[in-house]
């Protein structure tokens, strides 16, 4: 028998502290070392070391070669090792191991992360995956009765969903912290996991301890989102089932809240036209949802392997209002469908109206020919008759009223020179789904009831106090004005001539003031004029 060993853990043989499991590898018959990725050496071959007691047997087995050309293939690796030296080789491998231990210590502090490496404190590779905080996922306080087959199916679906979320998490970490070199691996027993192997990537990517800390920060930000998405997936599913016009599509490979499809009511028998109408409504619905003031991601799903004519909803947070989201999707879909039907009906009405107008105009032309007579249609004779006896014909036209859906004569338009407005067009169907939002609050977000009530009570109390102060100020100003007006009048009453007396209340009304002296002069002038006329 022959024992062959290979792997990144063999690099720790250069360190002073080696675990017993790795140290046992030295008793193998052969081992393969990939020194290029470990030390960051480009274009160097891997090395296979083997144990041999008799060189002749090794040569006969083809393990060695006597040709100089094949021996020169190891020259770049030998020169690189000579340049680094023993201390340089140990330093690079030790630094990569320290990065792994740094990440491992931080992962132990996270509740939803589980590592899956044996002898992890001595391993230069860290393999971990996201797991739920609790085993069940779905609505709190809701009990489901399931059989043994359903339990097995549920476990399989949860495993697939967990693999999908871990694959998404690994891709996110690779995009956000590319210098870390994390990648996604799939293990037979554990499923999809995230691997951090600085021995294979640190020397090439230049991974530093700051990059490890960035990975931990990204995990701390993504874990609450993953937990919230898992908890709200079942609630979203139940809400869609209870909403008319929506169908829930189970896609375990989608890392998000879920997939929903709007089912429109169409009696079209042609499957191609029905499919085209379905695509039109779905694209319009997706456009409307993207225009909303929300931080949710709406899409048509992955490029390959996704369901057609569906709305895919991405990751969510724990403050998501699922009923409002489902209601908005259903209402927006109904609005688009009603608008589409309204447009189709209007198109048909316009087409029928144009045909009716053409028939009426053709009939009017025939009546005009009969009324004018045949002689007027002859070129020369018609001109002479029109000159001797002009024929006055009324201008006849047709107008189509979209609101009433009828063809009307244009005689009223030419008579009054104003186009009749007709009836009021029917209102465009819209969805009534307005909801009171706090300033700066995104749509589909539940506001904190305690904070909101406190803020409302504080605001209302402040507003009430401001109203009281304003009312008191206005009352005081009114009183001061009234007292000023009262004190400015020197006499309780004013006499006009010798008989007319104006009460005190009339003086304080908002009316133009009367000059008493001018009234007396006018009365005297009128008396003098009357006396002169009597003498005449």
Automatic annotation (TrEMBL):
Residues 413-536 are annotated as: Disordered. Residues 236-341 form the PDXDC1-like third domain. It comes from the Eukaryota. Its cofactor is pyridoxal 5'-phosphate. Residues 450-463 have a biased composition (Low complexity). Residues 413-422 have a biased composition (Polar residues). Pfam families: PDXDC1-like_cen, PDXDC1-like_cen2. This is Pyridoxal-dependent decarboxylase domain-containing protein 1.
């Amino acid at each position: 028998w022959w024992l062959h060993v290979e792997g990144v853990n063999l690099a720790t043989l250069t360190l002073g502290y080696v675990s017993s499991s790795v140290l046992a590898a030295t008793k193998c018959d052969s081992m393969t070392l990939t020194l290029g990725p470990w030390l960051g050496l480009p274009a160097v071959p891997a090395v296979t070391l083997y144990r041999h007691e008799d060189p002749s047997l090794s040569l006969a087995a083809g393990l060695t070669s006597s040709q100089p050309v094949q021996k020169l293939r190891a020259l770049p690796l030998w020169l690189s090792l000579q340049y680094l030296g023993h201390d340089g080789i140990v330093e690079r491998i030790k630094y990569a191991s320290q990065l792994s231990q740094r990440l491992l210590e931080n992962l132990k502090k996270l509740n939803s992360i589980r590592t899956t490496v044996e002898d992890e404190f001595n391993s230069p590779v860290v393999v971990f995956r996201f797991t739920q905080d609790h085993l069940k996922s779905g609505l709190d306080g809701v009990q489901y009765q399931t059989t043994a087959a359903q339990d097995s199916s549920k476990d399989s679906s949860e495993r697939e969903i967990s693999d999908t979320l871990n694959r998404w998490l690994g891709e996110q970490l690779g995009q956000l912290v590319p210098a870390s070199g994390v990648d996604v691996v799939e293990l037979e027993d554990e499923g999809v996991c995230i691997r951090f192997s600085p021995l294979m990537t640190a020397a090439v990517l230049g991974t530093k301890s700051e990059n490890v800390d960035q990975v931990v920060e990204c995990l701390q930000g993504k874990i609450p989102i993953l937990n919230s998405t898992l908890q709200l997936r079942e609630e979203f599913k139940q809400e869609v089932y209870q909403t008319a016009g929506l169908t829930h599509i189970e896609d375990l490979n989608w890392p998000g809240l879920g997939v929903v499809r709007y089912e429109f009511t169409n009696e079209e028998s042609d499957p191609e036209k029905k499919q085209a109408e379905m695509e039109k409504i779905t694209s319009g619905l997706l456009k409307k949802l993207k225009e909303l003031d929300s931080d949710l991601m709406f899409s048509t799903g992955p490029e390959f392997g996704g369901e057609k004519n569906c709305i895919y909803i991405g990751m969510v947070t724990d403050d998501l209002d699922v009923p409002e989201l489902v209601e908005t999707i259903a209402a927006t879909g109904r609005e688009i469908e009603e608008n589409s039907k309204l447009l189709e009906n209007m198109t048909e009405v316009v087409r029928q109206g144009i045909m009716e107008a053409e028939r009426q105009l053709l009939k009017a032309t025939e009546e005009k020919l009969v009324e004018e007579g045949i002689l007027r249609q002859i070129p020369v004779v018609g001109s002479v008759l029109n000159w001797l006896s002009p024929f006055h014909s009324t201008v006849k036209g047709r107008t189509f009223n979209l609101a009433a859906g009828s063809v009307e004569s244009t005689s009223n338009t030419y008579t009054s020179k104003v186009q009749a407005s007709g009836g009021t067009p029917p209102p465009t169907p819209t969805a009534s789904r307005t909801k009171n939002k706090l300033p700066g609050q995104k749509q589909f977000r539940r506001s904190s009831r305690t904070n909101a009530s406190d803020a409302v009570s504080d605001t209302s109390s402040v507003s009430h106090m401001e109203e009281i102060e304003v009312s008191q100020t206005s009352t005081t100003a009114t009183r001061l004005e009234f007292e000023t007006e009262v004190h400015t009048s020197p006499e309780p009453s004013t006499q006009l001539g010798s008989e007319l007396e104006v009460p005190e209340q009339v003086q304080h009304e908002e009316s133009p003031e009367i000059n008493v002296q001018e009234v007396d002069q006018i009365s005297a002038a009128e008396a003098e004029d009357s006396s002169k006329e009597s003498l005449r």
